[in-house]
């Protein structure tokens, strides 16, 4: 019987490839969190499609209302515009949702403690991403200490970040190599029908496929 | 203008006294989380009463559905009995809710990052409490590192645990000394109309008042 690993699956490219990596060695449990973001429904569909693809039985889909209530991010406050184009600086972009990953991982830890999972896979990338503070290796390293201290002595849960030092083009290649269902993923920050191709997230994705020399299998508006 | 501090207020004795301590030096913001526990409604009333007492304007009341879905605790799984009487061992009791404090503090951090709070007060007690792993000083120390790493560089939020090394009888005395509204608090784990006086939480509270030589201002069943 394989060890159980929880994968945080937003439905995007990075989490899909992370699931493909976890699938090589673990029995999968998928966690998805709705948090009032603009593309909540479309991301949930991507999650379900990827979960079906990997025939995942252990699924937890939950909703957090407070991140939208609190605001402070262009993903949850619809009055703030979504940044367009590739990031122009190393500054933290307006799409940063305050302390978001801490919530997602904490849900995985609570769930993992009950279903006896031993790993939590998250598709965070440190260098080649949007510059969110809660995507850095040091953050996850400290979080692992917090899990050890904050759970039952017999609980053995560890965060695993298999793509943290990859470039996004390498993630695309890795996904293709592992047969990850990239055609089922959703990355666009602002549309739910067809990817806009212009927002920061679409632009980072398109650049990654271009650099990898692979055609992005999803359609884009005006392309 | 005083610095803003978020206080995690469950509505129990410890968080009420913690609020009284924070009130000495800070402008208060109160956070309360419903998580499907048995006495959810009564605890929320206690929260509101204490918030009114301190005339707190910044209030966030939110609900987490997943802790009950996940289960694993007699506070959220109503098929599990609530332990009666004082704890008989140092084991983690069935009332432990997996990784609960991590969620509560993470909500405070997300909120604090937006409203620019600088402190998060939590009424955790290490030695003289129920033996929950997420109530230890070392846990909060690591959590402070996680906050520094996982938020914007300009965010300065620190967890403060003013009663972590107090005995519960000292907490009662401190509360009386500071004029904390102990008559508005709720500690019972199993009833919402009148405190049972028998569950672990009631027993710890009654013992603390007895040791402090102070009459508990709330009524109990059969007393």
From TrEMBL, chains A, B:
Binding site for Zn(2+): 188, 196, 199, 202
Protein species of origin: Desulfofervidus auxilii
Pathway(s) the chain acts in: Purine metabolism; 7-cyano-7-deazaguanine biosynthesis
Known EC number: 6.3.4.20
Official protein name in the record: 7-cyano-7-deazaguanine synthase
Purpose: Catalyzes the ATP-dependent conversion of 7-carboxy-7-deazaguanine (CDG) to 7-cyano-7-deazaguanine (preQ(0)).
Alphabetical keyword list: ATP-binding, Ligase, Metal-binding, Nucleotide-binding, Queuosine biosynthesis, Zinc
Domain of life per record: Bacteria
Key word Transcription regulation present: no
């Amino acid at each position: 019987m394989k060890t159980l690993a929880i994968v945080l699956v937003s439905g995007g490219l990075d989490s899909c490839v992370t699931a493909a990596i976890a699938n090589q060695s673990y029995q999968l449990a998928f966690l998805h969190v709705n948090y009032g973001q603009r593309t909540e429904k479309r991301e949930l569909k991507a999650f379900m499609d990827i979960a079906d693809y990997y025939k995942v039985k252990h699924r937890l889909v939950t909703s957090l209302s407070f991140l939208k209530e609190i605001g402070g991010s262009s993903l949850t406050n619809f009055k703030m515009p979504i940044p367009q184009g590739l990031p122009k600086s190393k500054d933290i972009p307006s799409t940063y949702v305050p302390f978001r990953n801490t919530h997602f991982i904490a849900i995985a830890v609570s769930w993992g403690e009950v279903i006896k999972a031993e790993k939590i896979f998250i598709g965070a990338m440190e260098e080649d991403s949007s510059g969110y503070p809660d995507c850095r290796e040091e953050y996850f390293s400290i979080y692992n200490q917090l899990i050890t201290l904050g759970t039952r002595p017999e609980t053995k849960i560890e965060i695993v970040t298999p793509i943290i030092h990859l470039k996004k083009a390498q993630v695309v290649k890795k996904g293709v190599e592992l047969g990850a269902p990239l055609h089922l993923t959703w990355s666009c920050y602002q549309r739910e029908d067809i990817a806009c191709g212009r927002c920061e997230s679409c632009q980072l994705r398109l650049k990654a496929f271009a650099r990898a020399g692979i055609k992005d299998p999803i359609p884009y508006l005006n392309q």
